Write the structure tokens for this entry.
Amino acid sequence: MSMKKILVVDDGITMRLFYREVLEGAGFEVEEAANGVEGLERALLGGFDLMVVDINMPKMDGYEMVRQVRGDPALRAIPVVTVSTEEKDEDVLKAYTAGANFYLTKPVIPGDLIETVRLLTGVATQ
Amino acid sequence: MTPLLARFLPEARDLIQVAATGLLNLEKNPSDETIINDVFRSVHTLKGSSGLFEVAALTQLVHAAEDLLGAVRAGQIALISDMVDMLLDALDQVSLWIDSLERTERLPDDAEATSRPLVTRLRGCCPQSASKAKATTATAEDGAADWLGLLPESDRLAAFAHAVSGHPLLALHYCPDESCFFSGEDPLNLVRQCPEMLTGFIVPRAQWEPLDSFEPYQCRLDFLILSSAPRAEIEHLFRYVTEQVRIAAVAPEHLILLEGNSTDCTVCADFVAAARTDLDAKDFNALRRAVDTELERIDSTLRAASALRWLNAVLGSPLPNPLWIGAMVEAIASGKPPCFDRATTEPKLNTPPPSPAMSPLFHRILGEQRRVLSLPAEPDQIRTRIASVVASITNLLVSAGLADLTETLTRASSHAFEYGSPTRLLDLLEEWERCGPTSIPAGKQPPSIAPASPGGSVASPEDAASERTTVRMLKVDQAKIDLLMNLIGELVVSKNSLPFLAKRAEQVHGSREMAREIKDQYAVIDRLAQEMQGAIMQVRMLPVSEVFERFPRLVRDLSRKLGKTISLEIEGEETAADKSIIESLADPLIHIVRNALDHGIEYPDERRASGKSSHAAIRLKAFQEADQVVIEVGDDGRGIDPAAIKAAAIAKEVITQDQADLLSDQDAINLIFHPGFSTAEQISDLSGRGVGMDVVHNTIERLNGTVQVSSILGEGTVVRLSLPLSMAVTRVMMVETGSQLFGIPMDMIVETVRVPVTAIRTIKRTETFVLRDTLIPLVRMTRLLNLPGRHRDEATNEDEAVLVCRVNGSPVGLVIDSFREGMDVILKPLDGLLANIPGYSGTALLGDGRVLLVLNLKELL
């Protein structure tokens, strides 16, 4: 089975490396984008099985990016996980309203990240 | 060092820089949303990234800064200078920690202690809602408070009435640290500030010792409080003692605790019978009347009376809860405490324990999909949402080895799609959540479904988007760039041999065609070489903002320290110059700016007295002028007084009175470049001791630059630094003297003239000539370099070739044999045995392979 491809969108370069290391270590293919605009560009090229999107980003925030991703018929079904330092319910609901399927809170625990991504891409959990 | 940490350090430094710069801008333009957003996001990102490492102190500090910035961003508080100071201090501290992380990969041991006061200060500025930090939400939620029974019934009844009319109710149990008095805490005062306190109660902690062994300086009291303030406010109030406070939400029925003497239950038998009838008939008014009558009838100290009072309170609430009433009536009947178990909330879903195969995360994600679906949505959104939820759940099932169930899901989802309504899907999810999807036999098939099949190839991670961010990170050892530049320099020089080759092809080998081809090739190589040279110079070019960016902070901090109000204007920070120039500019510039702040600019009183605005200005301006980069530091301060300079110079025996009388005002001002000169009456700690403008002067001279000071007394001073754009390429003029070629740096040369021999006069054994009314001394190169003079026929009245140079500020004419062309060369310093020979600044290779010695006239003359 081909490797599942994950798009991670975060303006923190360290966070991106973190996602890459954790997810590649778990056998996923990872692509990065540094803000919502780049993330959207990337997403529109297609080929992703899941997106991990930070909320607070320059140029275009995570809410807007997810909203626009959902606006593309080809992308409307891709599972999207948003990541934020906020855990207030209103923030989560805002992300869901924009189109996210799940959320993780920073600091992201590697085990949770891997399991979430596995569950949402249909990769057997170990 | 892990790659993650290695990545984090430069990112953190960048973010700190962005935040600090932004803060300073923000202070000037407090309403600029872009800046506050940038600052906030930098700090936010920094916090997010730092969370990946074991640096709790750092994260806490950044978090506190973020909260404060968040409040500013939300417009809850205005940013004042003191806050900027605090934030800058915090950033400085984080910077130090980043350095420490780089050295030792951990924070210093005292990090926690260092962080705490900073965090406290930052949090102190936060308005209440913004400081709702995670630290405070950690406050223990210990279920219902267990001490409610300690409160008198009347208080509980009042609180109950308050709670059932829709107010939140929190129970606080505050156990101050025993030694809290020594850490400056005042528990009683803190408790008194508690917002919307309904009732408070102080109880002794444990059993107190007898008076003679009692320790009065220890806090041995607990505080019990009921408040209907929002949780955030309470948490804010107790934010410094979070670990000593337990906050619990109180449901109204928790307050219903019966007291009094228990009696024979039959006392109220008649009432109970009547109450049950009323309850069945839902006739609360009749029940109320019955309660009133019964209360008058029985002894008020009885337990049953207490129950009746509570029943009364329940009935008196705006929406009497029949279940509570029933429970109270039963309590009166049985003489036991009321049982609200069934009555408390709406029936909970009877969720069976999740199967061990399903992780908590599986259930969480499944549950969240239900939440996503139940959110209100536009009609066109709902199908999109169903699609993503179905895809997510399909994957979830496949991942958990429940692929069989996807069929059921598909059926429900196609219905949902068809009708644009997620109801069927929601029902299915609810069912699964209640019973666990495993109740249906799990599939044995290997996972095979992936809704979004990985399609065509997508650009690799190394493509443009990620490159854009790594460009800033590219750090190359300067030696590599220097090597590259040397190589290109040699390429430039060796291509110069091609025209010679072309000439030889034509003259020696008689092939004009070959000569033409070589020349054509030369033109191409020449262009490429020049472009390469330009490109490599560009690599070494840095904008002066590299140096300028530290000044806003410097000026701000120093002006506050000095008590002067000074604004800094920066202009032309994008002007670029060679890295080595930019780097060596920093120290002289700091010195000049400090001088201006310290000595140049007057105190506000003095400024007002002389009719100026009390607000002083310093201007840093950079621009390119010909092949020089010019940096001007101007202030509108008191200016330099030539008379004062002269007096000081005489006092310091730098010059004599006679000399002073001859000096023009400008020359007097230039005296400040004299070693060890300082006019300030008192040496402050700003400009340092004994280090004056002479250091600036020397540094700039070493870079082949010049310093000029112009000043108007009472109006201000401008210091102007002119520096070559690049030290890599030097433009020299070739001259021939004593049958040899020498190079003379073009920036020394003023002009070239031919002087008739007859116009040369000898004054005091020095040959001189007059150029436009100026007497210029002549120096014969051959004599200077000790070369054999050219054989000259005495009779011929030839002109002498004279190169007029400006050396150490005064003109001098160099007599040479002939002028040759000017050219760009890469100057290489003499090294090895030759390194110590004075008079030469270096060597350069000529196109035909010869070595050109470039003279250093300052040393020669």
Summary: Residues 475-536 of chain B form one domain. Chain B touches chain A through 63 residues (CB under 8 Å).
